[in-house]
Amino acid sequence: MLDSGEFRALFPNRPRPPGGPGRTVADLREEMERLESEGEIIIHRIRPENRPVRVTNLVGRTKQIPTDRLWHHKSCGQCGNIPGYPSSLLWLMNATHRTYLNEPHQTSCTAWNYHGTATSNPVALAAVAARNFHRAYETDHFPLIHCGTSFGDYKEMRKLLIEDGEVRKKVRDILHRIGRELVLPEEIVHYSEWLHVMAPEIVARQTHDMRGIVAAVHEPCHYYKMVPEDAVYDERVYAGQRPAVPTGILLALGATVADYSTWYDCCGFGFRHILAEREFSRSFANERKIRPMVEEAHADVAITSDTGCVTTLDKSQWIGKTHGFSYTLPVLADVQFAALALGADPYRIVQLHWHAVSAEDLMTKMRIDWKTAKAEFREYLQRLKNGGSPELLYPAREPIERFFAINKGQVPPEPDPGPSPSSKAVPTDAKGGSP
Amino acid sequence: MSFVASSLQRVRPSTGEDPAPTPEIEITGRRELTSDERELAGTIFAEFRADPRYHRFVLGCLNCGECTSGCPAARFYDFSPREMVQVAQNGDATTLWDAMQEKIWACCQCYSCTMRCRFGNDIGGIINVMRELSVVHGLESTRRALAPFRRTFTLLGTIGTQLAPDMIQPEFFRDWGPAATATEADWGVPLEILRKAIPVDVLQTTRAAWEVSVQTSLELFRIYEEAGVLDMLRAVDPDLVEMLVDLVEERREEFEAARERYRNELERMRGPVATFPG
Ligand code: SF4
Ligand code: SF4
């Protein structure tokens, strides 16, 4: 890959990206402060306990990325279809001794459905976002968004709730009817941003050398094309000309990131197409993404950082054979790649058996003993089948949580510090280590 | 009158008489509209222009085509984002009506156009406004487009996530191939055990992407009721909404029974659970 100087030299007439010292850009946070002072919203602030790291967004504003005490906002597609995606992330958090809550008290963002069918509207989308924001707030854990589409949608909804007083009022009224308040997080944070700023700690724990691996990155559209100014850019990654995630962590782990001509294209997911019109999804994925990744970038693996992209790029390859595409390019999320680099079990943790394209050759190249891991996983499955208890990354939820979004003793930070924790306090924060 | 024309083109029927004054356009690229359709097209047009997003999302157009050059849908369909912006700006109700029949469903909502447009148009966003209106008014083409999403709607309405592991079965996704996902044939254990082998408690489910607490799913349903989403759905699939209401009623009863069962624990706790009206 070109370094930033070489890359910039290709575009001598191109102005420097906005940002840099001294530049101030009016942003939503100022308006949020005003709204809070008028009692319109509550801001969920990033606090020292969240151990934030500062990065730069597209317009040069500092964005704080909390690294600790996080509330996992899960993704339907990841949890339903690529479970190694969230489990790798939680495993990395354990490995780096970060605390978190992963609860059953979260709804989907509903934005996959919205972008596929339009059977929702701004008030509903904003109310769903605010409902989940409030739940994170009352647990005093900062929301970390797993899905690129949830991230894009929540950026849009936060903006809408700040800019549109009428929507804000409607949403607030709805929230009151379900016993909640209008809370907006100070930052909307995608998990890949957490991974990016955690790179030094992750690399310090690396057990597998990734220098021989060539990765082609697919940049998820909803990460950076919706409310673009809130995506993270870094002068060290493509000279700040493309988002820093997920490329940054791959470079940090030593992999070679190879470029290809159609990097800007979407994956072909289409929201409705992947369920109802896959002729489009698979044609687009094979022709515009997989082929250039293999033919131009000579990639060993495709890496991306969103639910729909992993799904489309992975699942579409098999049918490509009917049109002469005989590629078998493994497709992983950045967190799965990072977890493998740190020695996570490829089946128990990274859950690679749910992927359509085998990653076995890739793991051989990474010098991972997948054969032993696979045999052990088969034995583990048999133990579970015979009634054995599953291993977990954190203490399991209580039976009462099947019904109620209970308060587990957390004290919301502001404006009501609240009395002492309830007597039903449960130690739910993971304390590190792996099963 | 029947003829072939590229859709969205304004075509005036030749009568051989003095055309002035110009009548409202009645002929579309597809066919003439019935009087009911014409009336509905007028209503939709007025609502489209009155939507507060219209003036935020449509700012003008240079016809530069920058949006279309990066549009994935434009490569595979008779569709382009530049055309959609032209439609959005066009003062003719039937032009909008035509685009809302099928074209709006070609867009794959990637927002590549929105990011590229030098005018700052939110093209993906304005397409959504058109789509929403097509749902609100229950257009026949929209009913057809949404027919495959019944299971998704049911999951969202009753549970709160929109995908379940048991949906991803090879027989439903033949084009994904025999290794599309982990199966009993490969691993010798059923889906339930494969899910149990995920080291995350709330993911050990087969009928929901993750386990959503009943309170949480009822909160989502309440939002959908209050924000008019159920009314939107009713316009395209009234039977589905009736079924959802019944299913959610069962969830409510389950919730009330649990409230009774856990009364002592709940009284000792503070937090929203005590005030959620159910
Ligand atoms: S959002 Fe729709 S119109 Fe815009 S580039 Fe993507 S597919 Fe094309
Ligand atoms: S990029 Fe913007 S200005 Fe150019 S054709 Fe598309 S909508 Fe019009």
Number of domains of chain B: 2
| Spatial strand arrangement across the major sheet of chain A | 10-8-11-12
Terminal-residue CA separation of chain A: 37 Å
What characteristic shape of chain B results from the CA principal axes? globular
Do you know the CATH architecture of the largest domain in chain A?
3-Layer(aba) Sandwich
Count of individual helical segments of chain B: 16
CATH A-level architecture of the largest domain in chain B? Orthogonal Bundle
Number of strands of chain B: 0
Poorly predicted regions of chain B are 1-28
State the share of residues found in helices of chain A, binned by percent.
25-40%
Instruction: Name the helicity range of chain B.
Output: 40-55%
Uncertain residue ranges of chain A: 1-5, 11-25, 414-435
Shape call of chain A: globular
Q: Give Rg of chain A in angstroms.
A: 22 Å
**What is the percentage of strand-forming residues of chain A?**
5-15%
Structure description:
The complex is a heterodimer of chains A (435) and B (278). Chain A is of the alpha/beta class. Chain A has 18 helices and 12 strands. In chain A, 39% of the residues lie in helices and 9% in strands. In chain A, helix 4 crosses helix 16 (334-341) and helix 7 crosses helix 8. Chain A is globular. Chain B has 16 helices and no strands. The termini of chain B are far apart. The model of chain B is unreliable at 1-28 (pLDDT under 50). One iron/sulfur cluster is lined by residues 61-67, 81-82, 85, 116-119, 121, 123 of chain B.
Summarize the structure.
Chain A folds into 3 domains: 31-191, Up-down Bundle (Glutathione S-transferase Yfyf (Class Pi), Chain A, domain 2); 199-376, Rossmann fold (3-Layer(aba) Sandwich); 390-426, no CATH class. Chain A is built from 18 helices and 12 strands.
Blueprint of the fold:
The complex is a heterodimer of chains A (435) and B (278).
Chain A: H1 4-9, H2 28-37, E1 42-44, E2 53-57, E3 62-65, E4 70-73, H3 76-81, H4 84-95, E5 100-101, H5 111-117, H6 122-138, E6 142-145, H7 148-163, H8 165-177, E7 183-185, H9 191-197, H10 199-203, E8 214-218, H11 221-224, E9 232-233, H12 247-252, E10 256-257, H13 273-276, H14 278-295, E11 301-304, H15 307-315, E12 331-333, H16 334-341, H17 360-365, H18 370-385
Parallel strand pairs in A: 1-7, 4-5, 4-6, 8-10, 8-11, 11-12
Antiparallel strand pairs in A: 2-3, 2-9
Chain B: H1 35-50, H2 52-57, H3 66-69, H4 72-76, H5 81-89, H6 93-101, H7 112-116, H8 123-136, H9 140-146, H10 150-158, H11 184-187, H12 191-196, H13 214-226, H14 229-236, H15 238-261, H16 263-268
One iron/sulfur cluster binds at residues 61-67, 81-82, 85, 116-119, 121, 123 of chain B.
